[in-house]
UniProtKB/TrEMBL annotation:
The keyword Cytoplasm appears for this protein: yes
Protein name stated in the entry: Glutaredoxin
Species annotation: Cynara cardunculus var. scolymus (Globe artichoke)
Gene3D superfamilies (alphabetical): Glutaredoxin (3.40.30.10)
Keyword Cytoplasm attached: yes
Length: 101
């Protein structure tokens, strides 16, 4: 998990994804529609992707995508969509410095 913490610590929004996952694509599109430029790690395309996926599973994230905002684990597609429907996602992104209004 230390490796994951290093990957997310200094970036406002980080998405761990798989290139063939439609839910990952949907979440990435949502952030892009907001004007947010997330750091995206395609775990099926990078070295040690499987190792990172196992580390994420160890903290309860067994599905893709896995999203971190402001260095904090937010969750997967269900959590992101729920935050969007509750209108709390945008304020989170502003607080993390990922979005300027």
């Amino acid at each position: 998990m230390d490796r994951v913490n290093m990957m997310v610590s200094d970036r406002p929004v980080v998405i761990f994804s798989k290139s063939s996952c439609i839910l990952s694509h949907t979440v990435k599109s949502l952030f892009n529609d907001f004007g947010v430029n997330p750091t995206v790690y395609e775990l099926d395309e990078i070295a040690r992707g499987r190792e990172i996926e196992q580390a994420l599973s160890g903290v309860g994230c067994s599905t893709m995508p896995t999203v971190f905002i402001g260095g904090e684990l937010v969750g997967g597609a269900n959590e992101i969509m729920s935050l969007q429907l509750k209108r709390v996602l945008k304020p989170m992104l502003i607080r993390a410095g990922a979005l300027w209004v």
